[in-house]
Structure prediction request, 993 residues.
Amino acid sequence: MSKTKKPKDTPSVSRRNFLKAASMAGGAISAAGLIVAPRDRAKAAPRPIPTPLGPGPVEVTLDINGQKHVLRVEPNVTLLEALREHLGMTGTKRICDHGECSACTVLIDGRATCSCMTLALDVQGKKITTIEGLAQGKTLDPLQKAFIDHDAFQCGFCTPGMILSLKATLNKHPHATPEQIKAAVAGNYCRCGALPNILKAGNAVAKG
Amino acid sequence: MYPTGRTSQDAPEKEVKKKRIKAKVGLAERPQVVEIEVPEQELPVWDLDSKLAVVGKRVPRIEGAEKVTGQAKYALDYVSKDLPGLLYGKTLRSPYPHARVEKIDASKARELPGVKAVLLFDKGEGFDPGKILDVMTEDAVSQPKGRVVIFEGEEVAAVAAESESIAEEAIRQIEVKYRRLPHVVDHEEAVKPGAPIVHRGMKDNLRRVDPQVRGDIDQGFKQAEVTIERTLRVPVLLHNSPECHVAVAKWEGPKLTVWASTQGVNGFRDELSKTFRIPPSDVRVITDHMGGGFGSKFGMQAYGAIAAALAKKAGAPVKLGYDRHEENLAAGNRPNATMWIKLGAKKDGTLTALHCRSFGTAGVGWDATVTPMMGIVYKCPNLRLEDTDVCTHAGQGMPFRAPGFPQGSFAIESAMDELAAELKMDPLALRRKNFVDQPLQALDKIYDLGAEKIGWSRRAEMGPETSSAVKRGIGMGTAVWPNYCGPPAHCRVTINSDGSAEAAMAVQDIGTGTRTLMAMVTAEELGLPVEAVKVTMGDTGLELIAPDSGGSVTALSITPAVRAAAAAAKAELFKRVAPALKAKPEDLVFENGKIFAPANPRKSLTWQQATARLGATPVSGRGERLPNVEPYAGIPLWGAQFAEVEVDTETGLVRVLRIVAVHEAGRALNPAMFESQVNGGVMMGVGYALLERRTMDQMEGRVVNPNLEDYKILSSFELPEIETVIVEPITPMNNIGGKGLGEPPTVPTAAAVANAVAQALGVRIYELPLSPDRVLETLEARKEA
Ligand code: FES
Ligand code: FES
Prediction:
């Protein structure tokens, strides 16, 4: 992580370390609502002392594309790592690993979410959709088809994140306006310059 | 001038028999029939009379479904599921721009559970990946005085461990004691006497490139009736390829396989072979899909060397990649430049002299040259172009889409506009006056179309005098890039008994659509639909050499060979079925779905019937890229871009509203992919004009913005409307009739935007990016003046 490049005398909180600290402390870092679900916290009086998780792997159950996956991972493992390295589902891409590019976007209960900024532990019990789960068998999602028709990718590395970012918006606003389509991918990084065609593809689907 | 990967298999020159053929080329509205001399086996040129069914059509990319479903596999996507026992590598990098490594202690890292290999790069000065076997050690400091690091991010050690987080932890556990040494990261400081020296043994930080001279510059300025003289600056840019540099290395005995995110599997393979002292035939480099390179991914580099060294040491496959931060310190950049330029012209606008002196930094590397563009873009009898590389304590520069040209374009196009103002001439008229006239060139038409589409005449109503605080302007710039495509490239096309075909070549698709072009050309030559063609590529194991993807060479270096291979395969098929048709193979044709001899059209076979006869032995043919036909190969790739901007004089914010990009690449092989290339080039160019720059902390000598949060590229909200106009002067240079396109669309964009901003404000900003602070400062300075 970024820490390795910083001088040893500069204290640094990397994203991964922050998440790690948070997970070690169980639900103690409430802003992140990380380990103990908020609902449990509210009703419990006196509050139970949260059990720290890790070091060492813990069992995590993930509902991905309608299928349950049980895996044993360190509590600080991000959803992105769990998908890619542990489950071998590498359609979800990593460009920055720091919440700056949206390449790692997946849908969590329908919301576009950066999986590099999400702990695998935190999304148990939620519905996770990745790019691998978008097509129905051999039938591509209309967005996927529109991407091909409008040449909305070159290297294709940003594509899964772009599609899922748009998907989240289109699920909510099936007839999204061009401004909404623009906003849907405003945080998505594309270096090849596919954006003009990505917007065309999104607008084509929104028009139906 | 480009890394081409054409080293180990270059064929020796053979005596070739030649023939003379005719081709109808140029623009459709002004065709020219030319006679050319080509090797005897060369196919007729696809010229203006050729009726093409696939080539030139908007064929969707053949890998589309893979890319939109997440199935396309990139080097980063190799995980333990693919390679059981895969280890993760990580590099320890110097946090300082210049320091002596006094002590390294890796004992704690070595003891960490899950750590499988630790390497210290502790000998010599700097880290040369090609010498990794000589500089790596397992022990602490082996030099009496310790090794010296010369930029922030330089490789100091590397580890391989069972997971990425263990590898990261191990890196943190390596204790290094550095003693800082004085540094210099600003090229304008590094040229001063007494500046810290970057490379030991050099007396200063400069390397003067041999100047390019034409005519007599002094005479030229004497003839001039008007001269202008300016100094302009451009910043260092970061490639920020979406997929960071990554390689997965696996040894099987003495044999090495590497899956890499590279622009050149062949070049990569050759360097691995040299570095690890094994024959090229024992090394295989594979790139199936790759997430962009833009020039930063040629050769083996540190990541390739370290991955292979760690894998060897650990006795297990190792994936070693850079993270975004590392990528932006050590994986390359576009050099900056300070450019002094002087132009002289007659009153009618005829250029008489051009003098440019530029210096810029490629960090600890070389080649910050920016003037070659100026030498070819306009006709000028007298010129002197001088470049100087300045070393600084920063990561080394790498080729970056059209190396040197966008920089040079900003200088000369700004100067041309100012000259036009001095001459009270229309800026476009000044270009027309001086444009290079070449055979089969369409620059006049390019200018016409651009001016028409942008509404050049509307400029009259724009500029600083309008009442609103938001000013508008239109500007333009000429695109040019030399034609570098050519041999060698070898392709094999196989026709299977099920009627399908397969084209194979060791070339990689870096996102430009190479795979699709191979399929299209094969389909065209065979008379099949694109869906019937499968492409195998990106694998040195194929032993079918092709160029590295850079310098706009790929498409037209390889497709003539693909076409030749397809023709050879078809000839083989005809040989096999000729007896059944009672005809000579050379008399057969495949038309309207039937194979037959025109003399006896009754007797025919469908394609399926014919290929079914192949049974278990498919036919294949090999094709070779033959030399370019002169003098046409000397004609560059031309274009022009026109920008319309809006500048808010209260906030300083520049918005690019529209870019009209008129380009030619000879034959446009796939207009949809053509437009995508242009979109990419334009977006990078607008980013260069408005947003992008690497910022260094001068005191600390470190990169301040090595991430995607602080290094801004264009997003959907800043995106201008981009209109691509394709001009198609067919060239007889090769059998396809095309040239290339990757670089030109990013050459003139920033200059066109800057010229538009200058028109809008009535005052020019001489430094990129045109950020709001600079706009406001410039307006303020004018007020004071
Ligand atoms: S990889 Fe998650 S936002 Fe960039
Ligand atoms: S298509 Fe390459 S980054 Fe978007």
Q: What stands out?
A: The two ends of chain B are 45 Å apart (CA to CA). Residues A 94-97, 99-104, 114, 116 surround FE2/S2 (inorganic) cluster (ligand 1) (CB under 6 Å). Residues 5 and 267 of chain B are 4 Å apart (CA to CA). DSSP finds 19 helices and 32 strands in chain B.
